[in-house]
Hints:
The chain has helices spanning 2-24, 51-54, 96-104, 178-181, and strands at 26-30, 45-49, 64-68, 111-119, 123-127, 130-133, 136-137, 157-159, 164-168, 184-185, 189-198. The protein is an alpha+beta fold and 209 residues long.
Amino acid sequence: MKGIIQWIVCLILAIIVALLLKHFVFTPTLVNQFSMRPTLENGDRLILDRLSITLNKEIKRGEIITFEAPTVTSVDSSNYNENSPIAIYEKEEMGIFERFMYYTLEINKDSYIKRVIGVGGDKILIEDGNVYVNEILLNEDYLPEDSKTMRTGLFYDLTVPDGCVFAMGDNRMNSKDCRNFGCIPLNKIEGKVLCRIYPFGKFGKVETK
């Protein structure tokens, strides 16, 4: 009986350590979207750096991040506030068990993966198929030569609020992103893409600028 109890205790400790590592340090993830093509393809398997988020390290332009999907993914004139261009998150009150399932185990949690275009204080302007950050044309070598960034939502001329980022998918013609729902608060960011582990032919660091 003593041996069984020790085995159970070791198993519980191993699960706790694994959950802590997954939530606060590194975690694998699967790309289940087409919005980051051609940089990331549907089915790519990645490793996310969550330690940077845990330690509140600076989010930089060009980094690819994952974040909790907003409650409202297409803001329209009825809920648009030009003085607060921040994505809407309206989750119902959760109990301790529900919060554990949603935020720790991430069950039934939707996430997006996008590239950071602007950080707090940056002036973003999308015009004539181009992106301007602080009135300077953004050089986006990671996009195909014929890519155009169109105004697919209401958020195309704004200043990123402090404590937020403005992010878009590399597949600009097929990406629901901050153009549609507004800027993402830093506390909704889950991790930064560290590297790709599958397919094996593309194993390695993912391009960021």
